[in-house]
Structure formats: structure tokens, C-alpha cells
Design brief:
Length: 816
């Protein structure tokens, strides 16, 4: 492994060393004075002397060379600065160590402490920000700054333990923003049982990540983000966590600041600031052991602390409340386990770990040992066993993510809980019966009244009603008047219709799970969206989707015709549309020739009307939040229909913008304020619509758009063409040459207007439709949003779909 990395680094090194004219190295023959810098080969990092703001002291450090606000990532002599003078020099001494020397003094203020022959040695600043010592005689690295981190965790660095050498890779904060000397906070790996990242203030733990759950850290629920890859290594030689960045044009860092906050940040050159992408340690429940032993913290509750089942607050002293057992636990006398879901697992430092075990083995082990207080699967896939033999400390409840924890409770607690759940079941049954009876009474009443009405000769009015319903402009009427009873399909009939969910019937993989084609006994074709069991979508999200779609009716929205909830299965049944989704036609060279300008224009207008309906015309105000080509289905007449409302959220009319803790959506279509800050509004849908419009006209995907310049995306490309007055070059060649140029240009212009950086510069859907349809002056365009580029297949992945390593959806949890 290590030699692999060395090899890779080596080849990079040689190539650079031979071809490069930049001064990125320090050799025995040259040195670096205060005021001079060396710059890595691609220009990303620089090394030299610096003084922090409000300080006279001189430090040698590495900083981002292309970030316009000096951001230091590493400091060599952090605890031994040169005082108040610019007489410092960096050079290689006669033992091969890189040293910092003040003027003519012979004692270095800092040294890499190596001792080897200096022939063939050089120190080189790599593009990763790593300063390495390379020995041409041995062909190896002998020292690297990545092994001596300060407060910044860069891609390629490690956080962990080198068990072979007994050393660690850990991060120490600065003392203050003006003082890089070793501060009080440490970010390190606790490897005693199941490895966890921890932040300590001096020797006191103040935060822990929870154990590694096979996909991420237990308390950082969705770590996946489009541009980052995570790597966790746990073998007898080393335990470490590291990450890499797919798009290196995005500057990204993780920093432990002088207040002990750990943040992941991305540089925003437009605003000239570091945007916090995720803050790990904010919020009350993040502070270690907030609710004491056997307590549980939930930041959504008014009173954030509660006790685990079987425990209660000791009430004697209100100030120092802590959780104690309600009753003495009589081991082996009817005691057992209660399950908690979506929790941050307790501190594992005294837990036992058995990676090969199943959860059943785990239960047996814990049951048979009276000092065992709880257990859980180690990994989210259900494998491995963690068992606790003492206090359960630092448990949290999440609304999403987390893992299951089984807590040992006494016999009475167990009995009560069982009684509770059976009582709840009984109540549910009773409720259902009441509802059914209610419906029966209601329908017989309706039936009776109708009969009576007909008898009175009101047939005429009924005919009128039918006429209105069938007239083309009756959407609003229908919406207001049609009362649904959404048909519930049973699992069996769905399985028959889809031939047992056969692969041949699979239409694709949408958000939350696969979609199958089916045929009902009456010949009707249906599309069945089978929500994956481990999609993370709960009953509530499912209901949201069903409720929303069932209430909405519009020519440009996919019609839901039923649902199925049975056993573990949750399914939505839609009308089947024969022409598949827009991306299937649009991004294919041959199929896209089916789409001439007339068709594309109608598709764009249809989508616009559908979105307008969601935003404005339906009784609910709905923001779709995942508009993209694969969510636009086409019927046999090529009418577009918007699908996938699972992520839509009901907006009350008085709210125009909301901040969400969870960002869902698809990379490449997300507005910058949504992707970065989780702010969504109807204007973020307008942004996605703009991207979609440009894609429909160009036949190219926004993300994964490769021109000569790989950092270019469709938006940037369109903007460049616009500025150069060559905008018609954007038009998809498959569209042929005969199209009304004026109109196409107007459409593109509206598209660019929709992707403006600032939400307030983007039009509403109402304006969009007006501008598309009329020769009106269009506001002048500004530079559109800088959009993070990402991998080419990103359009297929949708947030909330089953987790996979390549998932491009972005989910950000703030304030965790
Ligand atoms: C290296 O090059 C940069 C700019 O190219 C220059 O500012 C700097 O002084 C040079 N450093 C040395 C040690 O020559
Ligand atoms: C700077 O000053 C501090 C205390 O005033 C002293 O301990 C340290 O040695 C000085 N550093 C140098 C390089 O002279
Ligand atoms: C540092 O240098 C400045 C001017 O060069 C001087 O005014 C100041 O007193 C010096 N401070 C120390 C601590 O030597
Ligand atoms: C360092 O030594 C040089 C000559 O060896 C001398 O000219 C210079 O003044 C000295 N600088 C200091 C700060 O002592
Ligand atoms: C080099 O050795 C000195 C003295 O043992 C030590 O204080 C310093 O931290 C070491 N430097 C590095 C980079 O390890
Ligand atoms: C783990 O055990 C040690 C030693 O008994 C104890 O000091 C510490 O509090 C325990 N940690 C937890 C989380 O229970
Ligand atoms: C229970 O588990 C603890 C911790 O693993 C162990 O020290 C103890 O010997 C076990 N007791 C029994 C009866 O197995």
C-alpha cells in the first residue's frame, strides 16, 4: 500500500522534476530567504515566510496560492517563530535536514531532524500541499509534511494511527487566529475498540464521530457528497481516515479552528470566502456526553435530554440530574432488550468488537453476560457486533441516519413496552374499522342522495358537469371537484402485472428505487415505482409523495393511479408513458433526431407550465427540488410530464424561502444557494429549469460536459458563447438547420436568465412562460452561477436513492 503510493508519487515527481521550470524545490545548492516563495508545480500551493494578521512573528508555512485570502494550511515552526525580523532563511543543512535559521545564528529554530548523506537530496512542494524529502539514491521519500499536520486536513492527508511505528496523524488547533502555536484542541483517532474520530480539549473529550459503520461515521449520517471520496483503513499496521477530491479545481479543506470547531469548507472565489460545507461539532447534542451516562440527546425536543428506556432522571437535585435505573436489574429474570432506532451509538472506548458476528450472535453474547448493557450491529449492512459493558455515554437520537441500538432493560420495562405496542396495534385496528364504517355510511348516503337527485330530473346538470370535466381547460375544475379514493393494489396483483418484477420489465432506476413496467388484467399499462427497503425513505416521506401527487392534476404532471403498501414493500403505481424519459431521447445521438425544434419547444413550454402549476396554480405551493431530464417523462404525443414528487415539500403560502437541514437534489441541476447553504425557494427550481432548458436546446448534459477545458460546464459554455456572440453554436446539431433563430435565441436567453447566480436575478416561472411566449425585452444577463462540476453520470443519480458509492446526490447535514 505504502509502496504503491510512493510509486505513484514517484512517477509524478520525476515527470515534474524533469519538465518543470517552476521553482518548487529546495536543493542543497539553493535556499529560501524571507520574502521568497516556492510554488507547487500546478500553482496550487506556495511555501514561504509569513506573519499572521496582527503579528510581527515570522513563520514558515504552506498556503493556498490561488486563494485570494491568505489561507495557511501548514506551519513548520509554529511553536518557535523568528521574532520581529525578516532575517530568516530556509535551507538544507549538512545532515540533509531542512532547517529554518534566523540570520547568522547556528541553532536552527526548526528542523526536519533527518540525518542522511545530502547528495541527491531535495525537498519539493507537491501539488497536494505536501512538502516531501526525496532521496535520489534510495529512490524514496524520507520525510513529508503530511506526517506532521497542524490544523488543516487536506485531501490526501491521513487522520489516524500508525500502529507499526506507534505514531499518530492528528491535528492541533492554532492558539488564536493571530497565533499558530499549538492550541488546546486536538482532532485524532481513538483506536481502542471500534475506531472513532474524537476532538479533545486538552485531555477531555468534547466530540466523537461515532464508530465507522461501513459507509461513514455513525453520527455523520450522510457523508457522501459528489466531489468527495472517503477512505477508511483498519488493518494491523494502520488505522486511518482520508479523503480525496474528484474535482481539484475546487479548493476544499477541513479545519479544526482555535475554538475547537471542525468544519469542512469550500472556497468561493466570487464571494472571496470559505463556505462551510459541513460543521461537525456545532449544536448542543454534539458536545460529548451532554446528557450523561444512560441519557440520550435529541436537539429537536424542547428538553433535549431524556433517559434511555428503563432509566429515569434522579429527581433529588434538579441541577445535576442524571439517569438511573428505574428498578434494580435482576439478571436472567425476564430482562431483555429494547430497540432504539436512528441513534448515535454510545462511546465505544470500552465496548467489544466482533466483526465476523451476526446480530443474533451479538444478542446471545450480551444476554449471557450480566454486565452487558447493550449491543448493536457494527455496520449499517447488519454485520458485526458491538457490545457495551458499562455506562452508555453520548447517545443521540436523529431523525435520519444513525443506527439501531439494543438496550438492556428489566422485566417490567420489557413487559410494559410489549403491552404498549400491542395496545397501539389494537388501537390501530379499531381506528381502521371505524374509518371503513364511516366510509360505508358516507357512500350509502351519497348513493341515496344521487338516486334522489336523479329522480328529481337533474340529469341535465350531471351532463353539464361531464362536459366541463372533459373540456381541455378543466384542470382547475377537476382539481377542485374530483375526490379521490386512491386505489390500493395488493402485492400479488402487482407481482403478476410486473411478472414478478422481472428484469425485462425494469424501466429504470429512479429516485428511491427501480421502476417496472406492468400490465393489468384489463390491459392497462402501468409503471410501478418500487421503493427500495433500505432507501432511507420512511413511511412519512412515502405518504408525502402519495398525498401530493394524488391531489395534483395537470397535463404536464405524471398521474398516479394507485399505491401498494404491504409487508416491507412500498410502491407507487403511475400511468405508463411509452416514450420513456427525456434524457433517454435527448442525450443519444440517433434518438435525439426525433426531437426537432417544434417538439423541443413544446417540451420546454410543457415543463414550464407544469412547474408553474406546482409553484403557483395548485392549492399547495410545491417546490420540486429535483427537476432534471430523467424526471421528465414523455407520452406518446411527446407531451412532457414531470415525475418524482417525493422530495417536494409543501410550502405554506407566506413562506418564500426556507432553510433546510437536508439538501436533496441532483448535482449539476442545483442552484448555488441550495447546494452550498441549503437554501431553497421557487427560484432554486427556476435554476434547475434553466439548466434543463439549456440541455434540451444543446442536447448536452450540464454536468459531465467536456469541452476542451474540463472545468467547463454547459452553463459556462453557454455564457462564453453568449459573450462572444456565437450563441447559435449551442444548438444541438441533431435539431437540423431549419429553426426560427430569433425564437431559439430568445429561449436560450431565458435559460441563461434562469441560472443567474443570485436568486433574485432569476425570473419566476410566470415570467419565464411570458418571456418564452412573447417578443418582450429580456433583462440584461449577468455572469451565471459558478457551478461545481462533477462526474458525467451524475444525472442518473437522484437524492434519496439507495446509497451507493457512486452516488452523486448531495446531502448536507448542518449543525450536527
Ligand atoms: C519562485 O518563483 C516565484 C514566482 O515565479 C517568485 O516570486 C519567487 O521569488 C521564486 N523563489 C525562488 C526561491 O526563486
Ligand atoms: C523569540 O522570543 C522568545 C521569547 O521572547 C524566545 O523564547 C525565542 O527563542 C525567540 N526566538 C528566536 C528565534 O529568537
Ligand atoms: C519589532 O520591530 C519594530 C520595528 O522594526 C519595533 O518598533 C518593535 O518594538 C519590535 N518589537 C519587538 C518585540 O522587538
Ligand atoms: C551575518 O553575517 C554577515 C557576514 O558574515 C554580516 O555581514 C551580517 O551583518 C550578519 N548579520 C547579522 C544579523 O548578524
Ligand atoms: C526535531 O527535534 C526537536 C528536538 O528533539 C523537536 O523539538 C522537533 O519537534 C523535531 N522536529 C520535527 C519536525 O519533528
Ligand atoms: C471506560 O473505562 C475507563 C476505565 O475503567 C473509564 O475511566 C471510562 O470512563 C470508561 N468510558 C466509558 C465511556 O464508559
Ligand atoms: C462479561 O464480559 C466482560 C467484558 O468482556 C468480561 O470481562 C467478563 O468476564 C464476562 N463475564 C462473563 C460471565 O462471561
Amino acid at each position: 500500500m505504502v509502496s504503491m503510493i510512493s510509486l505513484l508519487l514517484l512517477s509524478a515527481l520525476f515527470v515534474n522534476h524533469l519538465c518543470s521550470a517552476t521553482n518548487d524545490t529546495i536543493t542543497p545548492n539553493n535556499f529560501l530567504r524571507d520574502g521568497e516563495t516556492i510554488v507547487s508545480n500546478g500553482g496550487t500551493f506556495a511555501l514561504g515566510f509569513f506573519s499572521p494578521a496582527n503579528s510581527q512573528k515570522r513563520y514558515v508555512g504552506i498556503w493556498f496560492n490561488k486563494v485570494s485570502v491568505k489561507t495557511v494550511v501548514w506551519v513548520a515552526n509554529r511553536d518557535n517563530p523568528i521574532n520581529n525580523s525578516s532575517t530568516g532563511v530556509v535551507k538544507i543543512d549538512d545532515k540533509g535536514s531542512l532547517v529554518i535559521i534566523d540570520g547568522n545564528s547556528s541553532d536552527p529554530v526548526w528542523s526536519t531532524n533527518v540525518s542522511i548523506p545530502i547528495k541527491g537530496l531535495f525537498y519539493k512542494l507537491m501539488e497536494s500541499g505536501n512538502l516531501v524529502l526525496y532521496d535520489e539514491n534510495r529512490g524514496d521519500f524520507l520525510w513529508q509534511s503530511f506526517d506532521f499536520p497542524t490544523d488543516t486536513f487536506l485531501p490526501g492527508m491521513k487522520l489516524g494511527l500508525n500502529l507499526k511505528l506507534g505514531t499518530s496523524w492528528s491535528f492541533r488547533s492554532w492558539k488564536s487566529p493571530d497565533d499558530p502555536s499549538t492550541g488546546i484542541f486536538t482532532l485524532s483517532m481513538d483506536g481502542t475498540a471500534s475506531p472513532e474520530m474524537v476532538i479533545k480539549k486538552a485531555s477531555q473529550k468534547i466530540w466523537r464521530s461515532g464508530p465507522w459503520n461501513g459507509q461513514g461515521w455513525n453520527s455523520v449520517p450522510t457523508m457522501r457528497s459528489p466531489n468527495l471520496n472517503y477512505n477508511f483503513m483498519n488493518d494491523p499496521n494502520e488505522i486511518y481516515f482520508s479523503y480525496s477530491v474528484a474535482d481539484t479545481s475546487v479548493f476544499s479543506r477541513m479545519v479544526l479552528d482555535y475554538l475547537g470547531l471542525a468544519r469542512r469548507e469550500i472556497w468561493d472565489e466570487n464571494k472571496r470566502q470559505w463556505n462551510t460545507f459541513r460543521s461537525y461539532t456545532d449544536g448542543d447534542c454534539n458536545s460529548y456526553g451532554k446528557c450523561g451516562a444512560f441519557g440520550s440527546c435529541n436537539s429537536n425536543n424542547v428538553q433535549i435530554c431524556s433517559c434511555l428506556p428503563g432509566f429515569e432522571f434522579k429527581s433529588s437535585n434538579k441541577e445535576s440530574q442524571h439517569c438511573v435505573r428505574k428498578r434494580k436489574l435482576l439478571c436472567g429474570q425476564g430482562d431483555g432488550f429494547l430497540k432504539l432506532e436512528k441513534v448515535k451509538l454510545p462511546d465505544t472506548s470500552n465496548a467489544t468488537v466482533h466483526m465476523g458476528w451476526s446480530i443474533k450472535d451479538c444478542e446471545v453474547e450480551c444476554m449471557n453476560n450480566c454486565s452487558c448493557t447493550g449491543y448493536s450491529s457494527a455496520y449499517v449492512d447488519g454485520s458485526g457486533c458491538l457490545a457495551w459493558f458499562g455506562d452508555l455515554v453520548d447517545v443521540r437520537e436523529f431523525t435520519e441516519g444513525g443506527q439501531e441500538l439494543f438496550v438492556r432493560v428489566d422485566a417490567i420495562e420489557l413487559e410494559n413496552s410489549e403491552r404498549h405496542s400491542s395496545l397501539a396495534k389494537k388501537k390501530l385496528v379499531l381506528l381502521c374499522v371505524l374509518i371503513v364504517v364511516g366510509f360505508l355510511i358516507f357512500f350509502s348516503a351519497v348513493y341515496y342522495l344521487c338516486k334522489k337527485a336523479r329522480k328529481r330530473g337533474l340529469v341535465h346538470r350531471e351532463r353539464l358537469r361531464k362536459e366541463i370535466l372533459n373540456s381541455p381547460s378543466s384542470e382547475a375544475y377537476k382539481e377542485a371537484n374530483t375526490k379521490f379514493e386512491l386505489p390500493i393494489f395488493n402485492l400479488n396483483s402487482v407481482m403478476v402485472a410486473t411478472e414478478n418484477f422481472s428484469l425485462a420489465n425494469k424501466l429504470g432506476e429512479g429516485g428511491f428505487g427501480p421502476v417496472y413496467k406492468g400490465k393489468l388484467p384489463n390491459g392497462c399499462e402501468i409503471a410501478v415505482k418500487r421503493l427500495s427497503k433500505n432507501s432511507g425513505q420512511g413511511v412519512i416521506e412515502f405518504k408525502t409523495e402519495v398525498d401530493l401527487i394524488a391531489k395534483l392534476q395537470h397535463r404536464n404532471l405524471v398521474q398516479i393511479i394507485g399505491c401498494c403498501v404491504e409487508e416491507e414493500e412500498k410502491m407507487l403505481i403511475y400511468e405508463h408513458l411509452p416514450n420513456k424519459s427525456l434524457d433517454f431521447l435527448l442525450f443519444d445521438k440517433t434518438r435525439s433526431t426525433l426531437l426537432d425544434w417544434k417538439v423541443r419547444c413544446d417540451i420546454i413550454l410543457g415543463i414550464a407550465r407544469g412547474v408553474l402549476y406546482l409553484h403557483q396554480d395548485s392549492r399547495l405551493r410545491i417546490i420540486h427540488r429535483d427537476l432534471k431530464a430523467s424526471n421528465i417523462l414523455l407520452d406518446d404525443k411527446m407531451n412532457p410530464k414531470i415525475s418524482d414528487f417525493g422530495m417536494a415539500r409543501i410550502f405554506r403560502g407566506d413562506q418564500c424561502q426556507a432553510n433546510t437541514r437536508r439538501v436533496v437534489g441532483t448535482y449539476g441541476y442545483m442552484a448555488p444557494e441550495y447546494a452550498m447553504d441549503g437554501l431553497f425557494s421557487i427560484k432554486s427550481d427556476v435554476f434547475s429549469f434553466g439548466v434543463l432548458l439549456l440541455e434540451i436546446i444543446s442536447g448536452k448534459k450540464n454536468s459531465g460536459f467536456y469541452h476542451e477545458d474540463p472545468t467547463m460546464n454547459l452553463i459556462n459554455y453557454a455564457w462564453e458563447l453568449w459573450k462572444d456572440g456565437r450563441i447559435l453554436e449551442l444548438v444541438d446539431p441533431s435539431m437540423g438547420t431549419s429553426f426560427p433563430e430569433q425564437e431559439v435565441v430568445r429561449f436560450i436567453k431565458v435559460g441563461i436568465l434562469c441560472v443567474q447566480e443570485k436568486a433574485k436575478d432569476r425570473p419566476t416561472m410566470h415570467n419565464v412562460i411570458f418571456m418564452l411566449g412573447n417578443e418582450t425585452p429580456i433583462p440584461s444577463l449577468n455572469q451565471p452561477a459558478f457551478v461545481l462540476t462533477s462526474n458525467h453520470n451524475s444525472a442518473n443519480a437522484s437524492a434519496g436513492s439507495a446509497p451507493s458509492l457512486n452516488e452523486m446526490s448531495i446531502t448536507i447535514f448542518e449543525g450536527r
